[in-house]
Every structure is written in C-alpha cells, then in structure tokens.
Design a protein that fits this description.
Elements: H1 4-9, H2 19-28, H3 35-46, H4 55-72, E1 82-83, E2 86-87, H5 89-92, H6 95-114, H7 120-134, H8 139-147, H9 155-180, H10 185-212, H11 215-218, H12 223-226, H13 232-236, H14 238-257, H15 265-275
Antiparallel strand pairs: 1-2
Helix pairs in contact: 2-6, 3-4, 3-9, 3-15, 4-6, 4-9, 7-9, 8-9, 9-10, 10-14, 14-15
C-alpha cells in the first residue's frame, strides 16, 4: 500500500483540536516501521482483494500499537525517555496528557473501524479480533506478565510474555486481513499462529539488537538493560537466539506457502525485510 504515512497521519483530521490531539499526533506520526498495517495490506493483496478496504482497520491497529507504546513508556511502566528518536510522549507533553493521548488513540481506533463499509459480519469479526488481541486476554495480559519480572526465570516464561505482549498485536492484522478476505475460522486461526511466530522472532530480535546496537542507533532508550531484565539472549546466548529467530521466520514462510488461494510472494518478501532489520 502506497502512502502509508499519509493514510496514518490523516486519521485524526476529524478529531477535536486540543493538547491531547497534539499529543496523539506527536506519537502517531513519529514514524516507525508500520509493520502491523502493512501486514494487513499484504494479506489482502495476497488474497487478491482491494487493499483500500483495509484502510480503517490499518489505522486502527496502528493507533492501538501507538497507544501501547505511549503507556509502556510511562514512569509507572518502563519509564523511558526516548522513542523513535524523539522524547517520549510524557516527556514532550506531560504524564497526564500522555495517558489521555493513549486513551484517545485506543478509543478512536474503534471509531475508525466503524467507518468501514465492508459487510457488517466481517467488520464485527475484525472488532472482535482487535479487542481480544489488544485487551486483557491479549496484549494487556502480556504487559501484566511483563511487569511481574520475578516470574520470568525460564525461556518458556519469557516466551509467554512475548506471545501476548508482542505476538497478539502482530497476529491481529493478519487475522483481520483474512476475515476481510472472506476466509473461514480455521484459516483465520492459522494466521494467528503465523503472527505468534512473527511476534516471538521480532521480540527476540529486539533483545539481540539491545545488546549489539546503541540507543542512538535504535532511536529508543533501553530500559531492559537499565533494569537488568532477564531476556531470551541472557538465557540462551546470542548465537542460539539468532538460530531461534531464523527458525521462527522459516516456519512463517512455510506456513504462508501452504495457504490455498494466497499468493505469498509479496508477504514473504516483507518477512525477509523484517528478519533483516537493524532497528
């Protein structure tokens, strides 16, 4: 999908002007990889659908991702001061405004979806997926696990955190794209599994980058190192962690190639780019 930044930045045009709107825009338009909305568009393209039908849903998923970053950076969470090469939201504005900006993005996400003119059952299916993947049984559950660091002593425990905190919001666009493409529950669930693997690989990559790149390179502060947090790399070592990442992405490619009626070439190219990322 071309002009992804224009699609994202225009999503708040109708929101009431205020300091909170400024704060929402500050983080929403700060750049980033836009992996989640792009994954949604890639699923639609692979199934031969018009990518433009995904615009409200792409905006919604990026709003929820952005809200999660704003709240994750707060003093009560990771207390980070740098995100995407700029001061975090609560540093640039203030803590109360940052909280409201996150709340605003979360709420506005579902308003964006309500603007879709796709069949009601498909829109409702996407609402169900996004609310589950982002909610207290999904991403928020992962955040809850993450703040209880004393419970994370093994690879399986850390893997569980990654599955929920990162995997859920990477699975959501894949599942929503499948629903919008008219796929059944079995295929939607299969895309969920692909998203889980991308999420695990993505987070292990972040752990590797945190020890091999500087905060300036990454454009964000490293609170994990500051807090001496247990990570997959600390448990398995860098070499084993890199093997784990390669195996997970290979599984993703294999599963994508097995979907009937899905042209996986473009999606696999995107996965290759994600695997090769350096920030």
């Amino acid at each position: 999908m071309e002009n992804i930044e224009a699609i994202i930045s225009a999503s708040l045009n109708e929101v009431q002007e205020s300091r909170v709107r400024d704060s929402m825009l500050y983080s929403l338009t700060a750049g980033g990889k836009r992996i989640r909305p792009l994954l949604l568009f890639e699923v639609l393209k692979g199934y031969g659908k018009d990518e433009s039908i995904g615009i409200p849903f792409a905006r919604a998923i990026e709003m929820i991702h952005t809200y999660s970053l704003i709240h994750d950076d707060l003093p009560a969470m990771d207390n980070d001061d740098l995100r995407r090469g700029r001061p975090t939201n609560h540093i640039q504005f203030d803590e109360a405004t940052a909280i409201l900006a996150g709340d605003g993005l979360l709420t506005e996400a579902f308003h964006q979806i309500s603007e879709s003119r796709e069949p009601a059952d498909r829109v409702l299916g996407c609402v169900g997926i996004l609310s589950e993947m982002a909610g207290p049984s999904g991403m928020i559950y992962g955040q809850c696990l993450d703040i209880n660091e004393s419970d994370q002593d093994t690879f399986e425990e850390i893997r569980r955190v990654h599955l929920y905190k990162t995997g859920c919001l990477l699975s959501a666009p894949l599942m929503m794209g499948a629903v919008l493409s008219g796929q059944g529950e079995e295929i939607v669930n299969a895309w969920h599994e692909v998203g889980n693997r991308i999420g695990l690989a993505f987070q292990i990559q972040d752990d590797i980058l945190d020890i091999t790149r500087t905060a300036e390179d990454l454009g964000k502060s490293n609170s994990d190192a500051r807090n001496d947090k247990v990570t997959v790399v600390k448990l398995l070592g860098e070499e084993a962690s890199r093997r784990n990442v390669s195996e997970l992405y290979a599984e993703c490619r294999s599963r994508m190639n097995q979907f009937r009626g899905f042209d996986s070439a473009s999606m696999i190219h995107m996965v290759d780019q994600i695997e090769a990322r350096m920030k």
